Amino acid sequence: MEEQQENQHGSRPAEPVALTTDRLVLRAPREEDVDAILAACQDEEIQRWTVVPVPYGRQDAEYFVHDLAANGWRTGDNLIWCVFERESGALVGSQGLTACAGRPGAAEVGWWAAKEFRSRGYTAEAAAAVARYGLRELGLRRLEWLAYVGNEGSRAVAERVGFRFEGTLRSYSEQRGRFRDTWIASLLAEDLSG
């Protein structure tokens, strides 16, 4: 068995890890996903609540797949999954698990959902799978969810997964050159159910 390398998360997988749920498959982004990622990130809500570039072009989707995700898996510090509906194979969103620099054992979670797949419980289902993987398989001690104040959809997902709200960080997170107030919540291994 190949020895696992260490990073901010602790041990990390030698290769990208796929996760499955009853309705979803989560796997590392691939070249064939570029068009679907490009289409999804045209949505104003994704642009409003995330740090994706605006306008979002093909080169941004290619960067997401070939650089951000590929390097994130290589170093183990930024694990990115595309989330697909098992039945149709359609891209329903993205999930990420990013090591918190300088805080071993802590990682930030993040997600976006394609407009046509919102309100089906897919994002919470995928986020729960990522949380279990991070806390149980990687042995992380703490997951953090951060979202700009007002992102009620993301907050509902975090609460459904079991994140505990900790407060508001004023002028905390940067989005395209502007600092915004940010909600923060956490999830520990003992908070997981099932």
TrEMBL record:
<protein>
    <submittedName>
        <fullName>GNAT family N-acetyltransferase</fullName>
    </submittedName>
</protein>
<feature type="domain" description="N-acetyltransferase">
    <location>
        <begin position="24"/>
        <end position="190"/>
    </location>
</feature>
<dbReference type="InterPro" id="IPR000182">
    <property type="entry name" value="GNAT_dom"/>
</dbReference>
<feature type="region of interest" description="Disordered">
    <location>
        <begin position="1"/>
        <end position="20"/>
    </location>
</feature>
<dbReference type="InterPro" id="IPR016181">
    <property type="entry name" value="Acyl_CoA_acyltransferase"/>
</dbReference>
<dbReference type="InterPro" id="IPR051908">
    <property type="entry name" value="Ribosomal_N-acetyltransferase"/>
</dbReference>
<dbReference type="Pfam" id="PF13302">
    <property type="entry name" value="Acetyltransf_3"/>
</dbReference>
